[in-house]
Amino acid sequence: HKNRNLQYKKTLEVSGSSFLFINIRGHRLSCSAFSVSAISQAKRLYEQRCRDKDEAEQAVHRSSNLVTPKQQEKLFVKLAQAKSALEDSDRMYQNNVNALEKIREEWQNEHVKACEFFESQECERINYFRSAMWLHVNQLSEGCVKNDDNYEEIRKALEQCSIGNDIECFVHIRKTGNLPPVPVVYENYYNTQKNTVPRRSQVPVPGTRPQMPIPSSEPGDANYASVDGYSLIHPH
Fold it and tell me: Which part of the chain is the F-BAR domain (predicted)?
């Protein structure tokens, strides 16, 4: 799992970095080819040409009956030049606006693509790790179930354990006889009367030991198996 995680992380970093680099590079190229300052400059020139044209029209109307035909002709020429300059500045201003708007739309489309790409990568990452964790937890849960089954078999075997029977079995297998050894007697060599060897002490054969209590295993008992109140699990 560790190797797969590292490989998946490396793939995300490479693809994400390359896509981000392309997006930033395209945005920088667009901005370098056309800046916002060009729009402001074209707008100021357009507004100035509008004012020049308005002033030329007002001059023609004011001096229609006050100037000579030659002077009036000059005013009309000036008005025509103002209109021509206005048309040129208007065209340039519109072209700049359209060019910048096109760049804005392209950048916005690229930005949307970048967001969608990163979103898909994040969804894939979350789905991958969720599936991996789900599988791992299922494996752990399955192991716990198997362990609990094994523990239950052990508890069932312990319920059949009888301490008294085990002790009796050990004594029966390992015993060396039913009577203890005879006492060791001192015999005096010079004593005319031989010491009477005492008879073997009749030691009663050990009787059967009392039956030990059987471990209880009641449903819901936290100790699972206890012997008359004794338990290895101490309540808190």
Answer: 1-166
For residue 123, tell me if it sits in a domain: yes
Q: Which of 219, 220, 216 is nearest to 231 (CA)?
A: 216
CA 233 to mean position of chain CA atoms: 37
Looking at the 3D structure of the chain, how many domains does it have?
Answer: 1
Q: Which amino acid, one-letter code, is at 159? A: E
Task: Give the sign of the dihedral formed by CA 108, CA 101, CA 27, CA 15.
Answer: positive
Q: Of 1-10, 176-185, 186-195, which range is least confident?
A: 1-10
In a domain, 25, yes or no: yes
Report d(CA 108, CA 100) in Å as an integer. 12
pLDDT at 153: 95
Residue in the block written with tokens 């048309």: 87
State the residue range of the domain holding 106: 15-160
What's the pLDDT at 227?
A: 45
